[in-house]
């Protein structure tokens, strides 16, 4: 059978994104059901009326009585005028559904109090084995609640709205009449929506939801933004950044802040203070993520919670002394000291330091010790928990080989000696059922091992003067990055169906000059380098050029990742049986031999 002409302009064939279609060009099927008044259980429909319209023009009509397979209550007959005798020759719902679903195909379903009608149709489809097409739904009752005031209409009943909009057909509790009345109500509401800057289908559906007055008032801030990857900045009247975010599609993401899905109180407050949205277009999503991090770090927007103060990280430093000790510092110095980090807080750094003290005979005091003049010993020396270098009971050479060197080896190479010592102590405590003490050691192991794995992973790429990489962008081009000492120095995207080499060469020539500083993150924040690493480690990323070998220690901290994951999983749960969850000797022994 030939396809009706009016179907050619439906949503399926016009746009990839139906939500962007203007209301004037959208095909609507305005539907109404009459029922026996029972629950939506797949039966009970007595009449269906539907009118297909677009641009104010009627395209088709669907109307039929339906045999519900049960007697109609008397009050329903009085209300609708539909009798059992009228329904006896009518087809059952399972016969009507295929034609109705075809009539709905590619259109937006409109109904007054739509959840009621949609509930009956979905239940009928489920009961009789028809897949529900899940069309977009617009509820005229919900739109009226947002668009009309109480001064205009006392309620949002269909009869009241039909009279307000001077509908040609007044509702009569018969499906087709009510559907035609709803058509006129829909057209009246669409005219009213223009004053709210609602012109597309997606905007109308969101308008019908429970958005706040602030969101509705500030919706215009999302206008005119580009559909490209990048960063968006909400700014106040004095041009101060209030909130910085990133997206693969700036316009779509910013528009979501003005929909019912956005329920965060702080964002609602931010929207009230914003006067404009600035868009920073980027070559691809990685550049957008990095720019977002840098903007947040530079401006500390009040409504951003993450990544605001990257300079507040701390480091665990093994001092460059005759008898080195651990110290928590805020900055890296270009000296001979060994550093572990970065840590997000002083507490985490001190937790890792406690793990080192449990595994190695490092002194814990903060005194400057002399190799000539002894210093009074502290309680730790008397308890045998310190080799007492203050009393010269250990030579600098022995202290260096038994305490300082193992720490340096653990953070830059193989941490097995530290991990094995801590695991041995955890196991001994668990054997004696001292689970709480074992759990404390477990938390120290986690902090130490997590920092070591992270630092070695970062150092592997930050020691390289340059890394050039590329990956397909999904539309025929290439996303290209130039990374220097772990910092994103340039980003570009080559056009589809063109060789990427000219774009890559241009990116290298115009890339930022990066001079490295000390430590494992010499030129960027750890979070920026980790975002770059995640991009580089994707299976579809290709390394184009590197200035040296990108390598990690053969027996480095990464081989304990499985142990770290098990320990973190145990710590996150409520299992107090440390022995069974963390210290299974067979698993740990296997981990130590990796």
TrEMBL record:
Keywords: Exonuclease, Hydrolase, Nuclease. Residues 227-305 form the GIY-YIG domain. One of its GO terms (molecular function) is exonuclease activity. Residues 570-594 are annotated as: Disordered. InterPro entries: DnaQ, GIY-YIG_endonuc, GIY-YIG_endonuc_sf, GIY-YIG_UvrC_Cho, Ribonucl_H, RNaseH-like_sf, RNaseH_sf, UvrABC_protein_C. CDD domains: DEDDh (cd06127), GIY-YIG_UvrC_Cho (cd10434). It holds the Pfam family GIY-YIG. Residues 582-594 have a biased composition (Basic and acidic residues). PANTHER family: UVRABC SYSTEM PROTEIN C, UVRC/OXIDOREDUCTASE. This is DEDD exonuclease domain-containing protein. It comes from Paractinoplanes globisporus.
């Amino acid at each position: 059978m030939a396809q009706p002409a009016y179907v050619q302009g439906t949503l399926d064939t016009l746009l990839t994104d139906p939500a962007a279609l203007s209301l004037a060009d959208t095909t609507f099927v305005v539907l109404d059901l009459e029922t026996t008044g029972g629950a939506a259980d797949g039966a009970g429909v007595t009449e269906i009326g539907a009118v297909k319209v677009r641009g104010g023009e009627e395209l088709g009509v669907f109307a039929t009585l339906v045999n519900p397979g049960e007697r109609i209550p008397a009050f329903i007959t009085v209300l609708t005028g539909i009798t059992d005798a009228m329904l006896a020759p009518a087809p059952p719902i399972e016969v009507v559904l295929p034609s109705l679903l075809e009539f709905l195909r590619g259109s937006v379903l409109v109904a007054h109090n739509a959840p009621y009608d949609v509930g009956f149709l979905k239940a009928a489809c489920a009961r009789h084995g028809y897949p529900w097409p899940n069309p977009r739904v617009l509820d005229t009752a919900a739109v009226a609640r947002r668009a009309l005031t109480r001064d205009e209409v006392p309620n949002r009943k269909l009869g009241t709205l039909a009279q307000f909009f001077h509908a040609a057909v007044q509702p009569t509790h018969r499906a087709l009449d009510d559907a035609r009345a709803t058509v006129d109500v829909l057209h009246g509401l669409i005219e009213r929506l223009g004053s709210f800057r609602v012109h597309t289908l997606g905007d109308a559906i969101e308008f019908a939801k429970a958005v706040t007055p602030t969101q509705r008032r500030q919706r215009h801030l999302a206008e005119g933004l580009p559909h490209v990857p990048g960063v968006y900045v909400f700014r106040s009247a004095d041009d101060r950044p209030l909130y910085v975010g990133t997206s693969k599609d700036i316009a779509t993401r910013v528009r979501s802040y003005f929909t019912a899905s956005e329920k965060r109180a702080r964002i609602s407050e931010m929207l009230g203070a914003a006067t404009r949205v600035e868009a920073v277009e980027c070559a691809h999503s990685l550049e957008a993520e990095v720019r977002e991090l840098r903007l947040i770090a530079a401006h500390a927007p009040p409504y951003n919670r993450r990544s605001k103060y990257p300079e507040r990280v701390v480091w665990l430093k093994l001092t460059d002394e005759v008898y080195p000790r651990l110290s928590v510092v805020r900055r890296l110095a270009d000296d001979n000291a060994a550093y572990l980090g970065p840590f997000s807080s002083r507490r985490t750094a001190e937790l890792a330091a406690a793990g080192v003290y449990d595994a190695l005979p490092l002194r814990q005091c903060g005194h400057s010790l002399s190799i000539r003049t002894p210093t009074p010993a502290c309680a730790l020396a008397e308890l045998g928990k310190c080799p007492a270098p203050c009393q010269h009971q250990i030579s600098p050479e022995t202290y260096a080989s038994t305490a300082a060197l193992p720490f340096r080896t653990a953070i830059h190479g193989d941490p097995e000696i530290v991990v094995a010592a801590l695991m041995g102590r955890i196991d001994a405590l668990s054997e004696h059922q001292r689970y709480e003490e074992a759990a404390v050691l477990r938390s120290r192991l986690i902090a130490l091992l997590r920092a070591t794995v992270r630092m070695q992973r970062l150092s592997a790429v930050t020691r390289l003067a340059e890394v050039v990489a590329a990956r397909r962008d999904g539309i025929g081009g290439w996303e290209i990055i130039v990374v220097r000492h772990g910092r994103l120095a340039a980003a570009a995207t080559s056009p589809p169906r063109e060789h990427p080499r000219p774009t890559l060469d241009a990116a290298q020539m115009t890339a930022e000059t990066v001079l490295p500083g000390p430590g494992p993150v010499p030129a960027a924040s750890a979070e920026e380098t980790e975002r770059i690493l995640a991009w580089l480690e994707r299976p579809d990323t290709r390394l184009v050029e590197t200035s040296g070998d990108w390598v990690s220690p053969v027996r480095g901290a990464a081989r304990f990742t499985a142990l770290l994951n098990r320990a973190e999983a145990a710590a996150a749960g409520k299992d107090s049986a440390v022995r069974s969850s963390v210290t299974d000797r067979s698993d740990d022994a296997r981990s130590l031999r990796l």
